[in-house]
Amino acid sequence: MFRSKVLIMLLAAVCFSLALTGITAVFAQIPEEADEAFHDLLSELHEDRVVSDISGDYTYYGDYEDEWAQIDYYQWVTFEQSNRFVLSANISWQSASQTPNNFAAGCGVIFNEGDGNSNHLLASIRMDGLIYFSGYRNHNYLSYGSYRYGPASTKGSADFVLVVDNGKASVYLDGRRIVQKAELPVMGDGVGLCTLSGTNKDYGTRCTYKDIFFYSW
User: How many Å apart are CA 198 and CA 204, to the nearest integer?
Assistant: First the structure.
């Protein structure tokens, strides 16, 4: 029954893509502690052979916040283009409702995005305590499973890392790898920050991304 509810929600949902709205790179005053932590992260990912090259370029985007209040729908902001990248941020999520559809509510990252709504992948932290890999290809829903990261919660935060290398993707929360997937479709190179709402109440879901780093090679 639970899996059926998730499937119905995602197949019925209309996704909204917004281009380059509200996210701008910060080229100065990168917090020293955050900068050092990101370089340490890249070194660890390279040692673990998740990232093959650490001589690429990175951009610091600072912080970003979004709200979305349309039940069982999601929207995102496309802000980068790459099929080989590391995105790191501390993500906080909060619902305006104490009883949202928590399987449909959360925050995440769109990647391998082609022409927006009909072609994209999504790695998302949901309020039911699961990480979901999903998306659309030619308007057809794609599901690559859900993976437990912790207890269900309508409010929380975690250090989130997504590593994408063309058709391979890995998600880390608080330094722990939750899942790694291979043979994912590459439909384009768009990357965006996504807000998923599980309620129509007030602001719906609020997602806050702090110290956003984006590295590509």
Answer: 7
pLDDT tens profile 158-167: 999 999 999 9
Cβ contacts of 130 within 8 Å, gap of 6 or more: 103, 146, 147, 148, 149
8's tokens: 């119905």
Q: Are 65 and 206 a contacting pair, CB within 8 Å?
A: yes
Diameter of the chain measured on Cα atoms: 50
Domains and CATH numbers, the chain: 2-216 (2.60.120.560)
The answer to whether the beta carbons of residues 61 and 180 sit under 8 Å apart is no
Q: Which two tokens stand for residue 95?
A: 């619902």
What confidence tens digit (pLDDT) does each residue in 26-51 have? Answer: 655 899 999 999 999 999 999 999 99
CA–CA separation, 6 and 123 (whole Å): 15
Q: What angle do CA 161, 69, 65 make, to 5 degrees?
A: 40
Residue of 200, 170, 196 whose CA lies nearest to 182:
170
Write down the residue that tokens 């990647």 correspond to: 111
CB 28 within 8 A of CB 152: no
Q: How far, in Å, CA of 139 to CA of 11, rounded?
A: 9
